[in-house]
Amino acid sequence: MASASLQFFAFILALFGVFGDIAATLLPNWKVNADVGSNIITAITQMQGLWMDCTWYSTGMFSCTLKYSILSLPVYIQAARTTMVLSCILSAFGICITTAGMKCTKLGGDTDSKNHACFAGGVCFILAGIFGLVPTSWYTREIISNFLDQTIPESSKHEPGGAVYTGFISAGFLLIAGVIFCSSCFKRQQGAWIYPPKQHHFPSTEQESNAGYNLKDYV
Prior knowledge:
By secondary structure, the protein is α+β, with helices and mostly antiparallel strands. The chain has helices at residues 2-26, 75-101, 111-148, 162-194, 204-218; strands at residues 31-35, 44-48, 52-57, 62-66, 159-160.
């Protein structure tokens, strides 16, 4: 029962991780630059994401521009696109696989098949967490290095946006969920190896000999 509730808790964490991973991939605020200027009325907030760049004006106007060209983008943005999409795909596969392998569901067949499914889903979650953690770390490093560079003007410097923090948290949720799923299946298999099921041997020969001896007594 404790293992089933722990798997359910890991599944909830994985769901939050999947939704956060998708949101972080699509959000345009990976890095933000707020230019107030001399007048608060003309304040501009520039946001840059993996797929589009958006500008928000204090007057209420909001405009976005898609990044159509892939080769013109920096290497870290291209890598972030690829790894975040892979993270979303792997986490979605993990959700489907663990749904069939969890103990609280009636899918997946026997106990061994469920354990294998949970282990495979846990591996998918761990890989998805790694693929989500690498681009967010690399992206944050580029933002910090550009911010500390004295040769770059202040108007071109940015700070990490909400999408980066969402990516970090989602990757952490996926990693925790994957470790829980894999460890629960591994402990169960290890217990089966250490403590094999006892085999009951019945002394059939002795019973037959005793039965024959008793029959001889009646002769």
